[in-house]
Design goal:
Nucleotidyltransferase, domain 5, 260 residues, single chain, 5-stranded mixed β-sheet, alpha/beta
């Protein structure tokens, strides 16, 4: 079975903000701050409504029978449409089990809105059994199907009051957790032109998610303790083979926590 773990990073959709709030004469930074202010007045938080969030990074872990890979789709100059097309083309190619942390509450709805905006077709993703009967009882859209495994939702027994942050669960399990930045800092890095830092941050989040998924597979009996350790060791070997500083930092923090 192919496993496809994913995470996205977003910034304010400046273009839509200008159109919706009549902000044509403002700079991008002024539009973003206006959008944050309007949202604070509405809800007390800077967290924008999902349809007003633009995707600037999608990072994935792909585990196939013979391969383990972690990377960010496209490159720092890729358009939002290209990132979304690459994401859904991966689903078309591998028919994987999707894995996320709060993907049902955030990542996938954002991808839906942005795919709608850009007209990105994804027939297999939207399949619910009309063309392929195997998707009738296990598809990407149903909350209670494991073709999309939203770890936060499942581990919380589908009770919102039991939800937990990815960072805290990762650290609790001896994993690095958040590294380099937090989600509320992404706009700052983006406005400074540092998309590479956002992609690196997104990659560490998605790797935390994958390692939590391995632990989840252990507790539900899909991995034996030996297989679980082998899969973790495969991740360590992958990181050791990489020269990127954020992977070496991830490995060092993980190793230190493991030996405490």
């Amino acid at each position: 079975m192919n496993i496809f773990v994913f995470d996205i990073e977003t910034v304010p959709d400046i273009k839509s903000g200008r159109q919706l709030y009549n902000l044509a004469d403002l700079t991008d930074e002024e539009v973003a701050q206006a959008m944050f202010k309007l949202r604070r007045q509405e809800s007390g938080t800077n967290f924008l409504r999902l349809h007003l969030q633009r995707i600037v990074a999608i990072s994935v872990v792909l585990r196939t029978r013979d391969q383990l890979k972690v990377w960010s789709l496209g490159d720092p100059e890729s358009t939002e449409k290209e990132l979304i097309e690459r994401f859904f083309s991966g689903l078309e190619k591998f028919s994987p089990t999707l894995v996320s942390w709060n993907g049902g509450g955030f990542d996938l709805p954002v991808l839906h809105y942005r795919a709608l905006l850009h007209g990105v077709s994804a027939p297999q993703y939207w399949e619910t059994g009309d063309s392929d009967q195997s998707f009738r009882w296990n598809n990407y859209l149903s909350r209670y199907h494991y073709r999309h495994t939203d770890l936060m939702d499942i581990i919380a027994a589908y009770q919102p009051r039991a939800n937990a942050p990815l960072d805290e669960i990762a650290v609790m399990l001896g994993l690095p957790g958040k590294m380099g930045m937090h989600g509320d800092q992404v706009w700052h890095y983006f406005s400074q032109g540092n998309v590479e830092a956002i992609r690196n941050y997104c990659e560490t989040d998605v790797l935390n998610t994958y390692l939590i998924y391995l632990r989840f597979e252990l507790i539900r009996g899909k991995l034996t303790p030996q297989r679980y350790e082998e899969e973790c060791q495969r991740v360590r070997q992958l990181l050791q083979s990489e020269s990127k500083p954020h992977w070496q930092e991830f490995l060092n923090i993980w190793s230190s926590a493991t030996h405490e």
